[in-house]
Design goal:
The chain is mainly alpha-helical. Helices cover about 80% and strands about 0% of the residues. The protein is built from 12 helices and no strands.
Length: about 240
Amino acid sequence: MTTENKICFRHGMRDGSPIALGYFAVAFTLGIAARNAGLSALQALVASALNNASAGEYAGFALIAAGSTYWETAIMTLVVNARYLLMSCALSQKLQPDTPLRHRMLIAYDVTDEIFGICVAQPGHLNPWYAYGAIAVAIPGWALGTYFGVIMGNVLPTRVVSALSVGLYGMFLAIIIPPARKNKVIAGVVAAGFAASYLANRLPLLDGLSTGMKTIILTIVLALLAALLFPADIVNTEEKKEER
């Protein structure tokens, strides 16, 4: 490793440390969800080490708890994490054109919202070792948070575990409420998602489908309808009007 790469790696670790602390807190509640799904602490640790994504991982744990098939769990995880494909494409433009494939693949392993944000904010081309430094502290923070969440879920009283289980839902509400308040289209899609999910669990016609398959179908259909009816340029225009 060259001196420049060492410096970039240390800078990545420095900028990634606050992210790791946040990951630990969020993943702790995720560990409660893993424990409720019947996973051991080691299984939850491995799951978080291989899938550093709160929404995708929670969807996976929810489907495991519902007894879904491997295919349903895999497809749902792919759908929920699809946004990382776009982030990876955008981040690839920050790399030098001659960056080896191995570096691109290693960075793609952990392209999360936060790591993507600090990487694209770097001036000029991105040195892969900066991303490695951030990843080196972010993944342990996420995986260990899930691990200890399961352990504490097995030790703490049932009432406390139930209270902590709500924390993850609070995190998701914190994600969807701010953009929904700023944009009527997003608010409508969120409301439609709640309503469609409720109806899917009540309509007799859908009784033959598993919970995982219902979630996959609703996610794809609602996202497709929103993209067709409200293209990105219309959404951006409404946001600008509201800012004025």
